Amino acid sequence: MTIPAEQRRIAADEVRLPPGLLPDGRSGRILVEALRLFAEYGFHDTSIRDLAKASGIRSATLYTHYPSKEHVLAELIRLGHEAHHTALAAALPGTAPGSAERLAALVRAHVLGCARYPLLASIANSELHALSPGLAAPSLLLRADSRQMMLDTINLGLDAGVFDVPDPFLALTAIAGMGIRVANWYGSATPYTPEDIADSYAAFALRLAGARA
Amino acid sequence: MTIPAEQRRIAADEVRLPPGLLPDGRSGRILVEALRLFAEYGFHDTSIRDLAKASGIRSATLYTHYPSKEHVLAELIRLGHEAHHTALAAALPGTAPGSAERLAALVRAHVLGCARYPLLASIANSELHALSPGLAAPSLLLRADSRQMMLDTINLGLDAGVFDVPDPFLALTAIAGMGIRVANWYGSATPYTPEDIADSYAAFALRLAGARA
DNA sequence: GTCTATACGTAGATAGAC
DNA sequence: GTCTATCTACGTATAGAC
């Protein structure tokens, strides 16, 4: 039932969510419990009955709130992508396109989200394959746009001469990838705040991109 | 049945494995098919019947080769961790402890494995939670040792003054994390060879660690 | 080693009363 | 909205013949 710490997909042990992201009442409660169970055991190893029990209802009642188990997952993944995209977009104002400051702000927002809301980030990044194409589509659009924001920032910085990398796409994958993994290892046992990690990783990203010192 | 490209957990579309890693005959064939199915759909969404059909046998026959579906996964994950650990250990000779060359060699080995054998790397890193503790134990030992190799390298490099980072653990998570993600995005559609990526990421790691230029 | 046949539990989802 | 009861399909695994 309980997975040993070293084998868990995520180290975090509390469900945290962006304020106001979820609906009130039972529908919201179901999403919270689904987030916890899907992140820990995976979508396919969590049954409707598991989810209902954790939510304090019977399995049949779940269907008055969501048409299927897949729709519950889809809603969580969509909300996760939206929160992520919103955070990145909010990081742009106040920074010049293609500046080192803009890249630092984007990385900080990316990593902060992964550290503050690791369950949400983990599900959004690891369970998308379980959705039918129609339910995955909104998240894919947001994901493509978030990615483009970061790639544009790297490319414009290269044009402006503030960065120095042989291949901008590889820099993107490295910077984005190290941030995504934070959702897996960050937990209450670590001595860092999410802000600590976001700042450190932003500095790493600037070094990696060869930003002028 | 088939997952759209943008939703797949891994971009690779061919099963590649270190030469000689798997047994010959039917037992090996089962592992190859399990690798493909588990990596694509996940352990819990692949049934014994799916696996048997892909292997060219009936589901009952599978039990003459492995005692359970979980044992098939355990074997794959163990082999993956062994291949990874062996590759890291083989990178050490010829480099001085704590040197920038050693970190570069370790990162190159790490990333090369993730790019050459993405299915194996992906499963080893994302399905460990599905194993009972007894079956996961051998892999956990190898994982801890691999991690320590990299952490020692960073710490000794700091002592020697060849690196410059405020927090070695955060550098470790960033360097290891960006490499692990390569298994997810690298595929035949990208214009890079695994060696290209390994070299680029090794350079990124040195920059990130503040290696003297 | 491989098969056919099957046991037995649990999965997702629905019917209809309250 | 929530329940009890239930449908039907599929899950892992086993029995026993060849």
Automatic annotation (TrEMBL), chains A, B:
MF term (GO), any: transcription cis-regulatory region binding
Keyword terms, alphabetized: DNA-binding, Transcription, Transcription regulation
Known DNA-binding region: 47-66
Pfam family, one: TetR_N
InterPro entries: Homeodomain-like_sf, HTH-type_TetR-like_transc_reg, HTH_TetR, KstR2_TetR_C, Tet_transcr_reg_TetR-rel_C_sf
HTH tetR-type domain boundaries: 24-84
Domain of life per record: Bacteria
Gene3D superfamilies, per database record: Tetracycline Repressor, domain 2
Record-annotated membrane-spanning stretches: none
Record PANTHER family: HTH-TYPE TRANSCRIPTIONAL REGULATOR BETI, HTH-TYPE TRANSCRIPTIONAL REGULATOR RUTR
Protein name as it appears in the record: DNA-binding transcriptional regulator, AcrR family
Organism: Sinosporangium album
